[in-house]
Amino acid sequence: MKIIMLGAPGAGKGTQAKKIAEKYGIPHISTGDIFRANIKNGTELGKKAKTYMDQGLLVPDELVVDLVVDRVQQADCEKGYVLDGFPRTIPQAESLDEALAKLGDKVDFAINVEVPDENIINRMGGRRACVGCGATYHVVFNAPKVEDVCDTCGEKLILRDDDKPETVKKRLDVYHEQTQPLIDYYKKAGVLKEVDGTVAMEEVFQAIVQVLGA
Ligand code: AP5
Ligand code: MG
User: pTM of the prediction?
Assistant: First the structure.
């Protein structure tokens, strides 16, 4: 099962992708998490990506496409995977399709988690991310057991640098301009599924499970 998560920044792609990965036993591949891990480890890729991410801009396609195309060909992806945050531009989607076609493969589902812009700004201010394992929380909607401490690995929770209100607004603009056209792209491919992302996390997940038909 090859699944793509679509949706605005903060729509809940990561939250739902983790649940899908767990339920179906497939890897969760988040390009944002990959970049943040590279930034944390001070790699060349991390340094390059950070300059774009801090401004709310997309990292150039050439820095992300090969990375994902390589990743989805690793052994643990044999049964499928859930891609979160990729593709984000039409050229990225085309590159993925080409790479999959060469393997005689294709995307099975593109799930668009729909949340209007007004809800997004509120959500982002309350999001906390773990510096250790990347787990995501929300101070109101999904609070950790101990304030600012990760339930899973015990590391510190922080507000992501790009979750400040000015940067969130920029990310939303970039989303509408460069990523939203993917909704039509996958509709034309006949794999688009839409779910309401404004309801409670568990309800969103149930809607996704229904869409996946399993
Ligand atoms: P990335 O990390 O992918 O960020 P994003 O797309 O902006 O999305 P977010 O992770 O902010 O939101 P999400 O949809 O995962 O929501 P979440 O589940 O956390 O990318 C970061 C940056 O990296 C980009 O700006 C770009 O620079 C770069 N990048 C990454 N991939 C790239 C690519 N392919 N090409 C180029 N550049 C790339 O939920 C948000 C909050 O809401 C959480 O606190 C959560 O607990 C809460 N929440 C979730 N669901 C609900 C609900 N139903 N009700 C209430 N609260 C909820
Ligand atoms: Mg995310």
Answer: 0.94
